[in-house]
Design goal:
alpha+beta, Arc Repressor Mutant, subunit A, Beta-Lactamase, 2 domains, 6-stranded antiparallel β-sheet, 8 strands, 44% helix, disordered N terminus
């Protein structure tokens, strides 16, 4: 009877089981792998994945042709996290950072190979960076992502970890400035770790410069990162080193609140 379409609470249980399975840290599993793991017939599972995909809870990986959690679930997770201590600690300081620099500020966390925006405060300039809470960006092309990848690679004592957090192969290119080489990314992460901040200069979007710094919990672990972002010319005119010092200082204040 396992192959009969599920209904009622059984269907809900099965759908939640699919989401839990996709939430594990691993390459995007395919239909066959999920079918064996969950004990569901491929036809039943395919229909269920189709429904989840239509509502945005699941999406297909275009490269690996497997399934992973979709944007709807990530947005819901981001909104849920906004009610936690991290959001409460960061929000007033994000607002202050936006007022001080005039640039858009954001609070982001690492989700696999991406960063997820948990909160954002817009600056007062008419031209600036704009995203939405729940938006996901590739970590290697963002300042916050590089900060969190560096933290994932190095422990609190500064000893390099052997476990890489990024998936194998060359990195996706978004602009001519995007880092696509693993060796180049390794060098960049070492620099980020040593300086305490990261800079992404036109790596995700041409003409946009972002500066990120880590937010740490009581154990010294980087649990999030904050950033400012705006046009390259404007931030360079204001002085990138000075702005980086401000971002680091604000991140440290959030860390102290945690």
């Amino acid at each position: 009877m396992r192959n009969r379409p599920a209904s009622g609470t059984q269907a809900v249980d099965r759908a939640l089981g699919v989401l839990v399975a996709l939430g594990e840290e691993r390459p995007a599993p395919g239909l066959s792998e999920l079918s064996i793991e969950l004990g569901l017939h491929k036809t039943t599972l395919f229909r269920m994945l189709g429904a989840l995909e239509r509502t945005g809870f699941v999406e297909r990986d275009a490269v690996q042709h497997g399934y992973r959690l979709g944007p709807t679930l990530l947005r819901l997770g981001a909104h849920a996290k906004r009610s936690t201590g991290l959001h409460e600690a960061a929000r007033p300081i994000l607002t202050e950072l936006a007022a001080t620099t005039g640039e858009t500020t954001s609070l982001e966390v690492l989700v696999g190979d991406d960063v997820l925006i948990l909160d954002e405060v817009h600056g007062h300039f008419l031209i600036g960076s704009r995203s939405e809470v729940g938006t996901r960006w590739p970590a290697h092309a963002t300042s916050t992502g590089k900060v969190l990848l560096a933290a994932a690679r190095f422990d609190v004592g500064g000893e390099e970890r052997t476990t890489a957090h990024a998936s194998p192969g060359r990195l996706a290119r978004f602009t001519p400035n995007t880092i696509t080489s693993r060796a180049a990314l390794d060098r960049e992460l070492t620099k980020v770790w040593n300086t305490g901040h990261a800079i992404a200069r036109g790596e995700l979007e041409p003409g946009v410069l972002a500066i990120g710094a880590p937010v740490r919990n009581a154990d010294g672990k980087a649990v999030a990162a904050i950033s400012i972002a705006g046009p390259v010319a404007r931030l360079e005119a204001a002085g990138v080193p000075a702005l980086a010092a401000i971002v680091r200082r604000m991140a440290a204040r959030i860390s102290a609140r945690l």
